[in-house]
Every structure is written in C-alpha cells, then in structure tokens.
Design a protein that fits this description.
The chain has helices spanning 21-28, 37-54, 73-99, 110-138; strands at 18-19, 61-64, 67-70. The chain is mainly α and 150 residues long. The chain folds into two domains: 10-70, no CATH class; 73-138. Strands 1-3-2 form a three-stranded antiparallel β-sheet. The model has no long low-confidence stretch (mean pLDDT 91).
Length: 150
Amino acid sequence: MKTNPWPLDFDRLAKGDRIDADEIERICGLRRTDEKYRLALLKLRQQIADAMEERGLVVTVKIEGADLHVLVDEEASHHNPRIYEQGLQMAKNAYRRNAGVDLNLLSDGRRPMHERLLIVHGRMLQAAGDARKEALKLTAVERKTPGRLS
C-alpha cells in the first residue's frame, strides 16, 4: 500500500508548477476565506522552498492570490530583485523611524545601545548605497546603437 506524501510530494514538484487554492485548502485544512489561511500559505511556501533546497534545487515560490507558484527561472529573475529592493526599502524606513526616536525618553541602559545601532545600521545602509553606485559603474552597458550626432 502506497501512502501519500504529506503535505506535498516535493519530489514531483518542479519549477513552473502551481498549487491552486483548492489543493492548499486540502493541505492546510483551512478555507481561503479563513483569516489564518494567509499564514498557512506563508508557512507552506517556506516548506516548499526548504524541501526543494534539501533536494539541491533553489526555487522561488510566490504567492499569487490564494495560490502558490514555483517560478521558472525567467519569472524568478524578475521577481527576486523586486523583493530585494523592497527589503532594502524596509530597512531604510526602519532606520528613519529609529532615528526619529527621542533619546531623552530612553532609559539610561537603552540609550547607548540605541545610538550604537543607529551608527551600525546607518553605516550598513551607506555601504549598500556606495556598493550599488560602484557596481553600476563597473557593469555599465556599452551602447550598441550609435549615439546622437551633433
């Protein structure tokens, strides 16, 4: 007697596969209208990515509506840079909010740690910006079409 792999047969999963909401509802035991469905979707997305990586395949799994989609390389090439940029923007926003904290309202024990983190995070953001500028200079693409004649 053969048993069904739970929650999914990761060995049969491949780039380009889509797991529709009906299948996810069956796996999670939740309706897509349930408020916990989105959390279950996040957990399942990570389970898929982890299971695929254990098999030596790094994949990008995207939530599309109520479905999960294992992206093909072309799709992942468009999706992952956007996620990366969103992460950097989140870090910048968190830094800006942290810089807005009134130091006078912090305890004597917390103030030095807060100031240290502001310096560290500020330098990390600055280094990321500097590295981006340098990388853009190094990877500049030469025009293949002639420029404007004056």
